[in-house]
Amino acid sequence: MSHHKLEVKNVQFRYPDGHEAVKDMSFSIYHGEAVGIIGANGAGKSTLLMLLMGVHFPESGQVLVGDVQITKKTLPMIRQRLGMVFQDPDDQLFMTSVYDDVAFGPRNNQLTEAEVENRVMKALDLVGIPHLRERAPFKLSGGEKRAAAIATVLSMEPDILIMDEPSSALDPKSRRRLINLLNSFEHTKIITSHDLDMVLDTCNRVIVIKDGKVAADGKTFDILSDAELLDTCGLEVPLALQNCPACGASK
C-alpha cells in the first residue's frame, strides 16, 4: 500500500445543528507535495483537517490514504501515517519535559526505550532543539513550543505532515525559522494558514476553500497572484506579491 497519496472524493459533512461545512469536495495530494489550504474564516478548512485525521467522518464520500479508506476500523493504522500539528502547541505539550512529550507517542506504540530515545533525539535534532530536551514545555517561548510540538509528531515518523496555522503567534524571527524548518522536510505537507506570505514561501500548490467547496486548485504563485480570485474568497494577495505602496512598482 502506498501511504503517500491522500484522496478526498466527493466528501460532504454537516454538523448536528445542520450546518453543512464541507460540500462535495474532491482533490488528491501526492508524495512530496507541499500544499497550502487557504480560505476565509468559516470556509471549512478546520473541518476538512478533522476529516483528514478521522476526528470526523464524512456524511458521504471518502477520504483515502493510499488505497485505504479512513474509517473507525482503519484509524489506528492511518494515524501512524498522518501526523497533525495543532494551531495551539499547548494542545500537544502536556508532560513535564520536552523529552517526555516527544517520547509519548513512540512509548504508546510499545517501542523499546532504546528505540524511543533514538526517535526522540532524531526528532529534536530535526527541529533544532536537542538542548531543550529536559526543559518544561510551559517555560518555552512560542517558537520553541512550536518546534517541540512538531517534534512530537515527527517522532511518530509519519509520511504526511498536517499543520494548522503553524505561524500563528510567532515573532518574525521564529516565523522565519519555522519556514526554513518546513522547507527542509521531505515529508508530504498540508498546511492551512491565513499567513499567505508563509504559504508562498513553503508550498508549491494551493487549494482555495470557499463555503465548503474547492474554489481553486493550482500552482502557488498563480493562485496567490490572482487578486480577483482571492478577493471573491475573502482573502488578499500576500504582501510579497503586492506593488510598492510608495511608488507603485511591482516587487
Structure commentary:
The chain is an alpha/beta fold. The chain contains nine helices and ten strands. It has helices at 45-52, 75-81, 98-108, 113-127, 142-154, 172-184, 196-202, 220-224, 227-232, and strands at residues 6-14, 20-29, 34-38, 60-65, 68-69, 82-85, 160-164, 188-192, 205-210, 213-219. The radius of gyration is 19 Å and the shape is globular. The termini are far apart. The model has no long low-confidence stretch (mean pLDDT 91).
Main sheet record: 6 strands, mixed
Task: Give the DSSP E fraction (strand runs of 2 or more residues).
Answer: 15-25%
Separation of the first and last Cα atoms: 45 Å
- Overall body shape: globular
**Radius of gyration (Å):** 19 Å
Output the strand order for the largest sheet.
6-7-8-3-9-10
Mean pLDDT: 91
Could you list some keywords that capture this structure?
251 residues, alpha/beta, four-stranded antiparallel sheet
Give a brief rundown of this model.
The protein is α/β, with parallel strands linked by helices. It has helices at 45-52, 75-81, 98-108, 113-127, 142-154, 172-184, 196-202, 220-224, 227-232, and strands at residues 6-14, 20-29, 34-38, 60-65, 68-69, 82-85, 160-164, 188-192, 205-210, 213-219.
